[in-house]
Amino acid sequence: MRSFKKGLFTGFLFLLILVLVACGNEEATPETTVDVDADPVKETEEVVEAKELTIGFSGPLSGPAATYGGETIKGLTMAVEDINEEGFEVDGQPYTLKLASLDDKYLPNETAANAKRLVQEEKTKFIYSPHSGGIYAMQVFNEMEDFIIMGYTSEPGVTEQGNSLMVRIPPRYDQYLEPFTKYEMERFGKKIAFLPTASQYGKDWAAALKPVWEANGGEVVFDESVDFSKDTDFQTIVANALQENPDVLFIGGPSEPTALIAKQARDLGFEGGFLIMDQAKLDEMAAVLGGNYDMLEGSISTIPLVNSEYPGTAEFIEKYKANNDRDPGSESAFHYVSLYVLTGAMKAAGTVDDTKAIMAKMDEAAKNLPENKQAYSIPGVEEDGGFGSLLRIAYIEDGELKIMGTD
Length: 407
Hints:
The protein has 14 helices and 13 strands.
């Protein structure tokens, strides 16, 4: 009986030990709970939302100069898209560029009205204009309204007004007067007939050329201008000019109508040379005249973009042609480059609205322009706001385009 009780006690003790061990293990393992609503990735940095920054434009998007105005818009659009894709940040704040464009039909009064609208409605601090008449119209009030004029004109006068918020993008045309004159005189003779565009730019070009031509022993035998905004048939005025037996015709304005003047002169038997204002482009004129330079024999003007070799020219041309069925002109390339200079100046100044601070950094931005963006190389921006550049002269001889200084 005692053995049975002893065995029962031993069994009870063993069972008690098992219970205590089990309880001990249960206490040693803490209860784990999972919060299914918890965010597995916790943000540690605040995301800064991009602000919209408007770039204004007023230019000819309809009428005879529509192609010219359209080329400027294409260059700006390409730059806006590329800059937005790359990311644009000033003083830690990201921005998205927006292009706001208005048609001024090549009329200065419309440019002024468009500029006021862009400032009031879009709050822009930057307005592009591709003609001197419109630029002069905006210079009346742009400093008071506090916006920078990004002017695409070779007119020297726009940067001689002392306007502190003025940028001139292409090179001044007065650097071409002497070499153009000497080439035409040596090859054809000293009598010239003037048939430039009737715009302010055309009048100023003619006024600058006349004393240079005469100082070299030349004679102006005919002096009229052509209003491309109204005229489409130039035969009468061309015939009147040719009655004076000129050796050279001074022509220029938008490329397409300028090419038609050259054609009508050839159709009427003119065999002399063409001294062509820098607004008209030789390659664009050739495209209107059968795709070759035969009718432009003896012409002198600026070098087409497609014949230029700056660090970023080939890349720009390839990118342009991916969305267009033609070669780009200098208008699109210069506008593309200029927007990179402008945004570079904003970065360097650390502001997108202090116009004077931005102007002060234009030269630095031009000199630091990445090579792959240099469809044109800009040596710097002068104190008057003019982009610096090298002399670019081409002429047509034996049906081929040749570059002066490389022969």
